[in-house]
Request: fold
Amino acid sequence: MKILIERNQLLLKKLGLALFDMFAVVVSSLLALVLRFEGNYSAIPRDYIDRSLQYISIVMVVTLIIFYVLRLYGSLWSYAGATEFMNIIIASVLSSGVQMAEIVLMDMKMPRSYYVFYGMCLFGMVAVSRYSYRVLRTVAKRQKDSQNRTNVLIMGAGGAGNMLVREITNSSHVNKRVVCI
Reply:
């Protein structure tokens, strides 16, 4: 069993991300309504909740396809940067647009701000889920290695100095700590 898990570790991570994304679609849909009605869940008309959940499975599938096309399951999130961040923004906007198109085509009424809130909530949940791994890994690495590091002084603070500091800070092979530039 252990060998099977090790061989399919990447597939399991992708499956975990996809499951979280399906959860994020549902939560974002409901949270968008709560935000639209200023945090008062009892003020939300039941019709809006029913409409948002009626076709949520279609929205989930389309959102997963959008995320797959924009490579949100293929990136190495430990090295995620601006490109992945932009892909999360684009994917959230597209998912919100798909949900809006679906609800409009079905001739149902929803508050206009719902789609904006949905896109923002989805973006927030996906961004936190993707970048939290990087943040936690960095924090754990700094705590683990802080006692065994040798202090270093870097001469020069230009672009090359900046790259050197970043490499020393992020590398698992360099056991140094930059204390002065």
